[in-house]
Amino acid sequence: MDQVGRPSKRRKLGDRNLPAGVDGEEAALYQDLLEMERKLDWVIARKKLDLSDALNKPGKTSRTLRIFLSTQLSNQSWQVAEGDTGPDADFSSISPPAWTMRIEGRLLDPPSRHAARSVKKFTHYLNSLVVELDRDPSFTEGNIIEWHRTAQTLDAEQDGFEIKRMGDSTVKCKIILDIAHSPPRLKVNPDLAAVIGLQEGSLQTIQNMFWNYIRQNGLQEKGDRRKIRPDAALKPLILQTMGQRENFMFHEIPALLKMCLSPADPVVIPYVVRMDSTTVGELKAFDIEIDVDDFAQKMRVREVMAALSPETAQQIQQLDEEISLAVVSVRHSKLKRDFLQSFASDPAHFIERWLSSQARDLKTVMGHESGMRGDLRRSDNFQLPWVEEAVVVHEGIRVSESLAKMMNPTLQAQR
User: Fold this and answer.
1) CA dist 17 → 21, 333, 387, 394 (Å)
2) Phi, psi for residue 131 in degrees, rounded to 5
3) CB contact at 8 A, 228 and 221
4) Torsion angles phi and psi, residue 11, rounded to 5
5) According to the CATH classification, is domain 61-81+95-184+265-293 in 2.60.40.1970?
6) Which residues, by range, are in coiled-coil regions (predicted)?
7) Fewer Cβ close by (within 10 Å): the C or N end of the chain?
């Protein structure tokens, strides 16, 4: 079978716990560090999930959308020279008086220089814009100008609008802006607003505040937590939406709130187009607070996720392998020490047990297994001292091979 395309198996780390009987101040410190590492790994794994969620759903931040209004005049009476209006003037070459109103907007840069600067245009933050002109309806030009977001306008965002009209008299205007909040904002009726202390907000925010009010005031019945008993502040709201009731169920909260919410009111800006010379070049600004995606937070999350790169994980895995090899070496040294200490404490008995073990191994090698099969069926046979000796030999061979592999690249690098 072709082994080239097969992915390499990840090496399983050995046990990094010190064997029983290895005491001392350093051993206690090592075990404390091991426990701290387990807790740190759990915290890092939890934070990775939080960062992943934050990356998929960026948070919101409040920014200022500034609206600029200005007026440009042309061919007004005070703009035409006296020679052009005398008895011999040719009025056929003079265009009728007109005016142009400009509506522009942009998102103000945040105070922090580290925050991301928005490149979205003005219409990106609007659902619709309506301008109502308060003037004689006999004008052939319309007095209501509308712009609405459609599938076509999404690909053609713009920084502002220009409205051109004929006339030489003052015109009162009303600019109505429907802001494209994300998520959409809803208006709270007075009864519900008196309970949660919020006039306008997103549906999730309103639901959270209503539920917090129920929990903080202990309105859930003790016998059945699904039932909610309204207090004096909630009773007028329940009477208005559900009628006379002593309680309502938890699953009825969305329907209750739906009856108390309506689309948020649009932003209305009054403006007057004046025909005198003082208005030329005058710029008026109006600020609107809106919620936008916090792309600066998203960038910070990306930087943190980049720090947790595969290269870093590979370095950590390599260090874990080195620690595992060191623990295996400690375990091997302890077995060797116990082996020699047993010999030093009672040499005669140790030699007898050692010869018995060697004789058993010799029978196995020579094929005289008739007497061994019964012993192999007993579990207590594997608790005898020969098992520890076999483990010492096996661990010694394995540690020697591992150390040789680690030292070989080092020697080649030195050459």
Assistant:
1) 12, 15, 21, 19
2) -120, 120
3) yes
4) -70, 130
5) yes
6) none
7) N
